[in-house]
Amino acid sequence: MINKLRIRFIAIAMASLVVVLGAIFIIVNAVNYAGIVSAADTFIEDAIAVDGIILQWPSYTAMENGPRREYFSATVSSEGDVDILMNFTSVLSKTAQTYVSIVYDEGKTDGFLETFRYGSALKEEGTLYVFVDCARELDTFYTFLYASTGFGVGGVVLVFLLVFIASAFLFRPVKESYLKQREFITNVSHDIKTPLTIIDADAEVLEMEHGESEWTRDIKAQVERLASLTEKMILLSRMEESGYKSIMTEFSLSDAVAETAKSFVPIAEKNGKQMDLQVEKNISYVGDENVIRKLVEILLDNSIKYSSDGGKIGILLNRNTKNIELIVSNQTKDLKLEDLSFLFDRFYRAESSRNSDSGGHGIGLSIAKAIVTAHKGKITAKLEENVIKFTITL
Predict the structure, then answer these.
(1) Residue 348's pLDDT is what?
(2) Is this structure's pTM higher than 0.70?
(3) Which site among 7, 93, 328, 352 is 20 to 30 Å from 58 CA-CA?
């Protein structure tokens, strides 16, 4: 449990870091790229305004007296003939004509072609195109992009290592406290069994000497209740131990579910409830058979105790293409949607069930979840139209 909590903490911390760094990475590089495009488009607009011929360069230099910006301009007649107007670039005029023809044939008015940003406008003599060479700006952009990516990935890895190491120290007191608490529960549960056995034996002696009475029956009932709670606490503690290993063998899950369910039929009928058993045959499973049978017992016992009077209890076992599903459902009028998120918590019972009449302790579903988790499965609860449905996926 503590290891899962630690993993969750690390995952949340790293996810938060990745989201923040990712947002910064995207924003910074998007701004850089937008700046390149904006500067090129401004130059193109100015060039188009003077029919594609700019002879003065001071406003388009990296420094006041720096190198001029390389560009070429051309017009395309209605017949598709390309006429190069100016070519202040390192590309040959023939190559420039090819670039213009490609853009013209594709019907594009602006965009990028290799390292050139281009724009166009309709003029009397045809379509005017201006191509600006952005090679240096794009090289700088990609250099920064790759560098920031490398630093970002390296930073995430470094922070992960630091968080991983720090979390071990951070969760050490929590782990020690949790282990002591679990050890205390286990020890107390074992220690309680001896006095309970003595009390039960004393009650039987009293019955033999003085006959059965309301008091002796009540003593034995409470002893049985405490003994049941003690066994459940021990089982839950054992299931949640990090070093716990189930005895995994292949067995007939269909037979295990059917046999366990049939043993509850008389109990259900005695309580005025019906059971609908639908078990697909020949389903085998590799797991701890005794513990799986205990899982079915817990779910059926829970359904009988908390289902509506005269209600129907359903047990469905089937295999789909990926998993095995065990569904136990029952009708209920008292359960609310807000109870669902707490059903698997220890000692939790819905408000309507917070009395001793049902005989429950609020720990059965916690054991069921621990059993399913130990088998690397998943258990969920869903409430629809006054029917609570527990679905176990194995």
Answers:
(1) 58
(2) no
(3) 93
With 0-12 / 13-18 / 19 or more C-beta atoms within 10 angstroms meaning exposed / middle / buried, residue 181 is exposed
Q: How many other CB atoms sit within 10 Å of the CB of residue 354?
A: 11
Angstrom distance (rounded) from CA 265 to CA 274: 8
Under 8 Å between Cβ of 104 and 77: no
Q: Which two tokens stand for residue 293?
A: 């049978």
Give me the chain's average pLDDT, please.
82
Q: What are phi and psi of 8, to 5 degrees?
A: -65, -40
Angle between the N-to-C axes of helices 214-240 and 172-210, in degrees from 0 to 180, rounded to the nearest 10 = 150
pLDDT one-digit tens code per residue, 216-251: 888 887 887 777 777 777 676 666 665 556 678 889
Burial 86-111 (b: 16+ CB within 10 A, else e): bbebebeeeebbebbeebbeeeeeee
Tens digits of per-residue pLDDT, 12-33?
999 999 999 999 999 999 999 9
What pLDDT is recorded for position 149? 93
- According to DSSP, the residues that pair with 111 across neighbouring strands are 118
- 247: buried, middle or exposed (CB in 10 Å: 19+, 13-18, 0-12)? exposed
